[in-house]
């Protein structure tokens, strides 16, 4: 890893795959075809892209039962415990509708309503990602969304991964469709004979899924389009280089474009971490990916003071931030921009990826400056409530009319005037 | 207005100006030029589009003082009272950071942080829109945003509208720039010598402003791209046709593409409202606009029951909904999709546009299915807090490693394992 003295121009090297013109065109065609031809198009695209003909898109109870045969009781117990932790944390995010009343009869308020229907996209590929299901489905359920639908591309044999099915079932998800890619996103946005359209689509995916989500945005809501994963570790002399290196590598193994950065006030820690990264890389199964990430996007910055280091962290606005200093809680109030903040040397990032409870869907690419982790609120919307009594209109009506006329909106003013003329 | 029996296929006719290819290209060039050339480009575009050379973009104290000379004390008092009402309502939306602790030393939480800097775009044109300033600036200030900047296109004499300046000053906005259009949005997103970049841009504008906001989205956050205004009135036999007609027209006068729709269970009310609309239109200053809106986007639907009418309202998911029935509070729980809900015949929509307190920036174009009014939360972001103790890692670490391995992420698992091996 490069060791660099911290200058004012600190920045995370970041790349986001925006897709090629060709990919955008391909996605646009898929979306249009699914919108026009429904299930037939879903089956054709699935045959083309996933190499399997799926006659029935909906996962059956038999398939779920069968999936349990291959998943160990121990694994199921871990999934359940993670689920319960995630539920417990997100339950604390639930917002109440509220109102305020005034003696003149005015009632104002804010009504919180869960979305009607949400679609969760779960990527396919060789590995199963039960944590994706937990992190996207649980907040929707906690929000009170009645219909939570899942889609995932089928494997070559036409089934979904057993762990995926078991995790979905442990959450009580009843509607699971064996369809992936841009065609799944189109189906969720516009509906087909089998799949009723939803109001919001969440969950990660490849570039085709991301481009499809961008294209249907507006017809439905979408979550963020996530960039490659990022970690910044803020460390002083007290940090354990072995832990720091391991945590940097845990992000680096995700993606050759993932960013793993150390900002430290201690030159010895910088060197020891660089050494440890080298050593730990040697035996890592995803060594090539992690090595590429470290070479191209990794860096160790040396700051001359903790305050300078904190400024750098805020400048970077990372997705994940670990604060590994003697008194991490003293640093917390100074952190302005980070998706998730891990405090102290035992708060290794994987603790938050799977188990602790907070969401692992976090703002990437510097958007922690203005974006938040996925929350229960993302699965609700608000309506303002305004109830004015006759007395309230009599009391304030003339001011409201005058304001409307100030903006040149006479019909607005008259709507109030009609109410004022009545005794 | 057309009177139509309610069928299952109820829909608001809606149009959104997406801009032409030419407009998108023009905006893209403006944004690029401002990004490269800074203030110089701002001045050139202002000369070109606003027909005035503005040497100093920043509004001076002298300009503010002068603005007060032409605005009446009465107007200022109304603006202040509206400001206080809006502040009071939005103060109730403020969220607290929170945490939860467990006996094993785990601390989890959510930190709420205001955005660093927000830019509010205020449209120019013949009329002044002080309500736009109030509704966009107040929630940002209540959220705790330290730097709230305003931009607005200069008038032909190089100044801003006096009411705009007075309103901004009554809110304590110190940074006001005389620049509008796509060039203002580019300056807010990328910064120039004079204007430091912000983190989020809010406020309405013409198609050039909307397209520029779309183009800078990602670099900064933006609010919604608003479509034409919409109102749906849900009325039974108890409704006063004069009031209903006036409220429909108050939306129609905004825009020839605005939608004003009545859904009623009473055929007599339907006819009486149609009659009243005709009558009230005759003397309206913006008669042509309102007439065009009513002809092209207006409709009166007759429902056979209140329940059918409510279903139609939810299907329409309007920006503004007035519930003018005998017992509006009995209907409220049934309303799932509406930006703002006005209850009872005295809750005329203009009450909410200017004065009552709730925000008038509301989801249009059916997005009330999944979007909310502008809130204080839109000017904050959250960070998750995760602090695991040594004891907590010892207790749960093996499960976390196992979960990581389930997903094929060995470096994640090892990051935990390193902590477990220590006594």
From TrEMBL, chains A, B:
UniProt keywords, alphabetically: Amino-acid biosynthesis, Histidine biosynthesis, Metal-binding, NAD, Oxidoreductase, Zinc
Cofactor annotation: Zn(2+)
Binding site for Zn(2+): 251, 254, 353, 412
UniProt entry tagged with the keyword Zinc: yes
Cofactor-binding details, from the entry: Binds 1 zinc ion per subunit.
Family designation: Belongs to the histidinol dehydrogenase family.
Protein name per its UniProtKB record: Histidinol dehydrogenase
EC top class, as a word: oxidoreductase
Function per UniProt: Catalyzes the sequential NAD-dependent oxidations of L-histidinol to L-histidinaldehyde and then to L-histidine.
Pfam families per UniProt: Histidinol_dh
Underlying gene: hisD
Pathway: Amino-acid biosynthesis; L-histidine biosynthesis; L-histidine from 5-phospho-alpha-D-ribose 1-diphosphate: step 9/9
Record keyword Amino-acid biosynthesis present: yes
Gene3D superfamilies: 1.20.5.1300, Nitrogenase molybdenum iron protein domain
Source species: Evansella cellulosilytica (strain ATCC 21833 / DSM 2522 / FERM P-1141 / JCM 9156 / N-4) (Bacillus cellulosilyticus)
UniProt: NAD(+) binding residues: 121, 183, 206
Lineage: Bacteria, Bacillati, Bacillota, Bacilli, Bacillales
